[in-house]
Automatic annotation (TrEMBL):
Signal sequence coordinates: 1-21
UniProt keyword Hydrolase present: no
Highest taxon in the source lineage: Bacteria
Domain 3-keto-alpha-glucoside-1,2-lyase/3-keto-2-hydroxy-glucal hydratase: 31-247
Pfam families: 3keto-disac_hyd
Protein name, UniProt field: DUF1080 domain-containing protein
Gene3D superfamilies, alphabetized: Exo-inulinase, domain 1 (2.60.120.560)
Organism: Gramella jeungdoensis
């Protein structure tokens, strides 16, 4: 029985590595360049004073939301980009230590409100991160009912036309359950962005008015430790990333 168990684990390891190798060759053939070598954070700017909380564990980038850095705690590429196609796989490992208010975002980009005009915010477990696009904003990753892929800075800019804000809201929730891997394919051309989550287009050629010409790609820090309790706050970035590929356009 013990030998069968070892054999089973070995076969799973071989199959997993084989699938990753096949995926790598597919992206290489299509002209993509890897942003993560699976071994260390070469090519990435680790926040000064981070303390090892952005780390590589078992071939994936792992973050525990406990960075000790001052200021910006996100992880950024050393290189800057203009237009591109980006593939990145991600998953949440779990949640912070308490429930978090989770508003319902309507297709218009506004929040669901009660008869008194107050935002309806039921409490729920949440983790929060995002793919940072050239320092101009982010493609959201979270546990809200609207689903991941939302363009936070666009939807929340009340000065923008209604149709622009609405286009920043995911068309559907396409997330896998917490603990399972998701895949993003993000296409950025000028000030237009498309987000494909797990094969489903959730943001379709939306206008991103604040997008800049060039900048780095980032993996977002969110949340952190409550200094009074020493525990993680709600909506912290308990997250992992793998298979990060980019093709400049």
């Amino acid at each position: 029985m013990k030998n069968l168990r070892i054999l089973s684990l070995l076969l799973c390891f071989i199959v997993s590595n084989s699938l990753l190798a096949q995926e790598s060759s597919v992206y290489e053939k299509e002209g993509y360049v890897s942003l993560f070598n699976g071994k260390d954070l070469t090519g990435w700017k680790i926040p000064e004073g981070d303390g090892g909380h952005w780390n590589v564990i078992d071939g994936v980038i792992d973050y525990d939301a406990r960075s000790e850095a001052e200021g910006n705690k996100s992880l950024w590429t050393e290189k800057e980009y203009t237009d591109f196609k980006l593939h990145v796989e991600w998953r949440f490992k779990g949640y912070g230590d308490h429930l978090f208010p989770l508003p319902t975002i309507l297709p218009s980009g506004d929040y669901l409100r009660d008869e008194n005009g107050d935002i309806v915010e039921p409490l729920g477990p949440n983790s929060d991160s995002g793919i940072l696009i050239k320092g101009a904003g982010q493609v959201q990753m979270w546990c809200w009912s609207v689903g991941s892929g939302e363009l936070w800075t666009v939807r929340n800019d009340k000065s923008l036309p209604a149709e622009v804000r609405a286009a920043a809201v995911p068309s559907e929730k396409a997330d896998q359950p917490v603990g399972e891997w998701n895949s993003y394919d993000i296409i950025l051309k000028g000030k237009r962005i498309t987000v494909i989550l797990n094969g489903i287009t959730v943001i379709d050629n939306a206008l991103y008015p604040s997008m800049v010409e060039s900048g780095p790609i980032g993996l977002q820090h969110h949340g952190g430790v409550n200094k009074e309790t020493g525990k993680l706050m709600g909506a912290s970035s308990l997250v992992q990333f793998r298979n990060i590929w980019i093709k400049e356009l």
